[in-house]
Amino acid sequence: MTAPRGPAVREAETSWRRYGAWALRVTIACPACVGSRLGVSRARSPRRHAPPLPCPLPACPRGGTRPAGGVLEPPRPSEPRPVSIAILADIHSNIEALTAVLDHAKARGATRIVCLGDIIGYGPNPRECLQRLFVSEVAIMGNHEEAVMFYGEDFNPKARASLEWTKDQLNSPEHDRTENYDLWNFLGTMQQVVEDGDIMYTHGSPRVPTREYVVPVDIKNREKIQGIFDLVKRVCFIGHSHIPHVYTSDFKHAAPEALNGAIDLEKLGERKILINTGSVGQPRDGDPRASYCTFDGRIVRFHRVAYDVQSTVDKIYAIERIPNFLADRLLVGR
User: Mind listing the domains of the chain with CATH numbers?
Assistant: First the structure.
């Protein structure tokens, strides 16, 4: 039986199609293009699966230039602040990208991990990626986790092919049954929305947590944006679109490059903010490097991390049931 598709879901799908045309015309990495244009489910307290990662080191410096105009004034240089949280989204079974990001985050003092969903799907290493993220303090359910556990009728043929292969991997008789149980139990603990004070974590949006896309062209849809911010106390971290981006409740938005790669939340004033961390394992903004954020309670920093893309591509090519398209797109970040 096909899951019901309400107005918000249909609107989300329409927004994503509109974004596809927009992305062909605009290069996200160009700050001048975007710098100035800018029903939640039950939320529970964050949980801890395992002790946090050790090894606190200074935060990395920012780079790049700041254009005139934008969502927020980037933070000014100051004494390094301790980074405590690495926020990841859309790993998509890409263990090479995930390993590079976790190493990068650890070297910058990350002691907690928040995963915004879609650990699995598309890529060649679903088991390994799930196991690496058992340590996540917060693990959000994405649409791929939802699909592998419940349904995925609306997946396109390429996504469905990888979904069915992923299911078989998680049930593989080549692995100990207890290992398989651990993977499924981890999936079963995932929540659609987690709130920690005035910070919200979800996969797609607060309105339709696993399904709704928020993309830059949506800033023109004030009813949609207002409806989303009505459910946000102050800050909401999301993924799903694979596009690192920032949206504020005064209907402005910017790519990270337009903000010098960092946001000082103390400069928000009364505004609320929606932050898309980008994708670790399948970026779609034209930059093949893995994307994620760190957050120290005040400063949000965007990071891009190079990894061995060709190794992941070769693995996908070697798996007959995963379409080669899902490998090819990694090379161009689209």
Answer: 82-332 (3.60.21.10)
Per-residue pLDDT of the chain (334 residues; tens, 9 = 90+): 334 445 454 454 444 444 443 343 333 333 333 333 333 333 433 433 333 333 333 333 333 333 333 445 555 545 555 558 999 999 999 999 999 999 999 999 999 999 999 999 999 999 999 999 999 999 999 999 999 999 777 899 999 999 999 999 999 999 999 999 999 999 999 999 999 999 999 999 999 999 999 999 999 999 999 999 999 999 999 999 999 999 999 999 999 999 999 999 999 999 999 999 999 999 999 999 999 999 999 999 999 999 999 999 999 999 999 999 999 999 999 9
Q: b vs e for 257-294, b when ≥16 Cβ sit within 10 Å of the residue's Cβ?
A: bbbbbbbbbeebeeebbbbbbbbbbbbbbebbbbbbbb
Predicted model pTM: 0.77
Please name which of 56, 222, 47 lies closest in space to residue 135, comparing C-alpha atoms: 47
